[in-house]
Specification:
Number of helices: 20
CATH topology of one domain: Rossmann fold
Oligomer: single chain
Strand content: 15-25%
Strand order of the largest sheet: 11-16-15-14-12-13
Helix content: 25-40%
Structural class: alpha/beta
Shape: globular
Length: 732
Amino acid sequence: MKIADIQKLMNEMSLEEKVGQMVQIPANMLTDGGLITGPTDSIEMNEETVSLVGSILGKTGAADLRKIQNDFMEKHPHHIPLLLMHDVINGLETIFPIPLAQGCTFSPELVEAASRASAKEAAAAGVHVTFSPMLDLVRDARWGRVMESTGEDPWLNGELGRAMVRGYQGDNDLLKEGNIAGCVKHFAGYGAPEGGRDYDNVELSERTFREDYLPAYQAAVEEGCVMVMTSFNSLNRIPSSGNQWLMRKILREEMGFDGVLISDYSAVDEMINHGIAEDSRAAAKLAILAGVDIDMVSNAYVKYLAELVRQGEVEERLIDEAVFRILKLKNDLGLFENPYKDGSVEKEAALFCCEEHRSLARKFAAASFVLIKNDEILPLQKEATETIAFIGPFVDNKELYGSWSFPQKPDNTVTIMAGAKQKKAEMLYAPGCYIQDRGKCNRYGQKQEYDDAEEARILAEAIDLAKKADKLVLCLGEPRDYTGEGGSKASIKLPENQFQLLKTLQQINPNIVTVLFSGRPLEVQEITELSKAVLMVWMPGTEGGNAVADILFGDAVPEGRLSMSLPRSVGQLPIYYNKFRTGRPNGPGNAVGFINGYIDEYTTPLYPFGYGLTYTDFTYSEVTLSKKEMTKDDRILASVQVTNAGGCTATETVQLYMQDVKGSVIRPIRSLKGAKKITLAPEETGEVTFEITEEMLRFYDINMNFVSEPGLFNVFIGHDSDTQNMAEFLLV
């Protein structure tokens, strides 16, 4: 269909039909089943208005979606197909590591490959649009949706966001088989709610907002992502779905986004609760004036948008602009010619959890694991002479995927027990304890209840195995439902019953390897003190059990790096490496008292951003620069020699950080500007070089101009964000 044909179609549509295109409903309003990811009572519609909607969410399956599409188009006055959207966050049937873990790979290549595989499976299942990538910068582990973010760094989030868009949309030709539309979320600043409480207010200075939070969204828009989702939070005390400055000036005008803007689930009506709209009618007006094209599951547009136009309160041109963008997206996907796009039962059978995707999931998961401690206990030996007991509620657990992985099919998951048995046929196993503390609720209000006698029995069984074994592998962590939307927590410790299991067994057998599962950074200081090795595996997905076994037994070598700093205690939050300098810094040589920090805790994290061990040691040469002065039209090459000083081939993630020594406004202590991987055999040395350009030195100056300022810059290249391996140059 040509652009002129879209305009012709719009001229034939009634106002109600056009408004219908701007309304999204859950799939369960058209069929049985379907995923519900928000309030179930948030929309009221009759048969007529349902028959005019433009999109649905929450349903997959080629056969079901084909029937829904057929039935819907038959009834629609102009037979316009639906857009079929779904939360394909880190895989569909083949589940990859959660995005937070993906961040730990520092690998755009792996992220793009996994997103490509996810797109292929989703397209085969009839999905047209995924609500991903989520590019909310997050610095507070209490926030439940930290699991959907790739971490605390603007540069890394942007690079991985670009990779996800490329994976979903291919070369941005949405007609091509296996390509689906991506949706950047949540615009904007959703990852910085007060106290880490989901849906709460966000307070950011414009400079911080522009310099730290906007770049990742901008990167995805530049990569061609065709949809953006508004965030639930308020910014500058205005909810995003009604924020004209944010949506029209920043997103549309400054960032150049010309695609479809969709609200989050019921977010338009929620402006009533925020207190800036007295009712749904007022909320509809605020949202359309802000430029929201699609109202996801609320009463505002469907009930009041046509009325607002007819009563002269909203210009019809705003409706036409929105509907044109929606119809153009449908046309770009080829839906007017083929409303099912790539949906096919045969393609589902060929792609779902296929060998290629499983192999990628296994490799990806292993690359995301972060080894934070190893007192020469890993890797484990496969020989029968070493007795190993696997203990904990995650050993035989199939729910190794994130809480936002839909549809949830645990039978596809390889457990830790199954993976370990492939490495070592004789292994001991006991659950040791339940996965949740007694009486504690997950985010759905579900409590763990269990019998005292049964609890004592499984603990006694674990104690007995600990006495027999040479080494213990404790598989512990937060249940998958402890994170995700609505999963904010005031405590980020291991469930108490699991921690008590660790303490008890450590008294019996101190040779403990702790494998930690979680959707967020946890307080791990006591865990590391009680363990000889700690491996953070997050929520690894379908091939999690095989990937964990690969790392534990040395068939794969750890290479993951922390995409979020690990705090010493929850009281340090929010904590992040690229903080600002203060007038009374806390550090070596500074006076005690009256300095920045706490009187009862360090200000530094337990493990910093970028940290991660492997089964060898890497050494770095000093940083060398190709020149000591640089003009704004010039460049500098910064290099290091990296040597594998250990006994096995491994991959090192070499990280480039920069510090602007003096600016017209306070600058961060340092900022990540690049990362490169190098794989080296024992005693092998390789050179890693980064190019430094003037563009990398820009920031928002005292007059809010995005510029670089002449002066001294420090260049750090090393293992993590704490590296002191430094050289300096002058920008003239």
